[in-house]
């Protein structure tokens, strides 16, 4: 019963902009799940639901996007670690804070930058192999934009 109810909760929050536990409880009752607000509260905790603003600015329940959260963590690593980036033909050389190159290389790999073939990291330097120098310029601009956005 619990598994079915939690699956129904996920379907409901994906289908409707649900703002409150009461609204969620009402919708569950409408589809045949007789439950209590306390149970809904526990389900929300167990499902790790969060509230995010929708297009209208209302705070609605949604699932944590694990991939999105991981991506944000990697972006924060890059924002804190990168000192400089320089392009040499199709090689993007990234200088980082000492000891942060490997974590930063993993972060760069996770961004799936189109045209980035791979990375090799030392202690404070990353070599990123790009398909060509034009892609390297685009990658620098993309990384710079992401870093500036995080620091705002």
CATH topology of the largest domain: Gyrase A, domain 2
Strand content: 15-25%
Number of helices: 6
Q: Give the C-level CATH assignment of the largest domain.
A: Alpha Beta
Q: Got a strand count?
A: 6
State the domain count.
Answer: 2
GO cellular component, one term: cytoplasm
Pfam families: Arg_repressor, Arg_repressor_C
Pathway: Amino-acid biosynthesis; L-arginine biosynthesis [regulation]
Domain Arginine repressor C-terminal: 78-143
How would you describe the overall organization of this protein?
One of its GO terms (biological process) is L-arginine biosynthetic process. GO terms for molecular function: arginine binding; DNA binding; DNA-binding transcription factor activity. It is found in: Cytoplasm. With 152 residues, the chain is α+β, with helices and mostly antiparallel strands. The chain folds into two domains: 2-64, Winged helix-like DNA-binding domain superfamily/Winged helix DNA-binding domain (Arc Repressor Mutant, subunit A), CATH 1.10.10.10; 67-151, 2-Layer Sandwich (Gyrase A, domain 2). It has six helices and six strands, in the order αααββαββαββα. Strand 1 (49-53) and strand 2 form a beta hairpin. The termini are far apart. The relative contact order is 0.11.
Structure summarized in a few sentences:
The protein is an alpha+beta fold and 152 residues long.
Secondary-structure topology with pairs:
Layout: H1 2-15, H2 21-30, H3 37-46, E1 49-53, E2 59-63, H4 66-81, E3 82-88, E4 91-96, H5 101-110, E5 116-121, E6 125-130, H6 133-151
Antiparallel strand pairs: 1-2, 3-4, 4-6, 5-6
Helix pairs in contact: 4-5, 4-6
């Amino acid at each position: 019963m619990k598994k079915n109810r939690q699956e129904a909760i996920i379907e409901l929050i994906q289908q409707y902009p649900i703002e409150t536990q009461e609204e969620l409880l009402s919708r569950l009752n409408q589809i045949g799940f007789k439950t209590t607000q306390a149970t809904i509260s526990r389900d929300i905790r167990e499902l790790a639901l969060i509230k995010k603003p929708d297009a209208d600015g209302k705070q609605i329940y949604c699932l944590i996007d694990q991939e999105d959260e991981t991506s944000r963590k990697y972006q924060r690593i890059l924002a804190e670690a990168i000192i400089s980036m320089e392009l040499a033909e199709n090689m993007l050389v990234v200088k980082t804070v000492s000891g942060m190159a490997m974590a930063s290389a993993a972060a760069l790999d996770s961004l799936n930058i189109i045209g980035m073939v791979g990375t090799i990291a030392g202690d404070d330097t990353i070599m990123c192999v790009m398909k060509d120098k034009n892609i390297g310029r685009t990658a620098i601009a993309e990384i710079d934009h992401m870093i500036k956005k995080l620091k705002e």
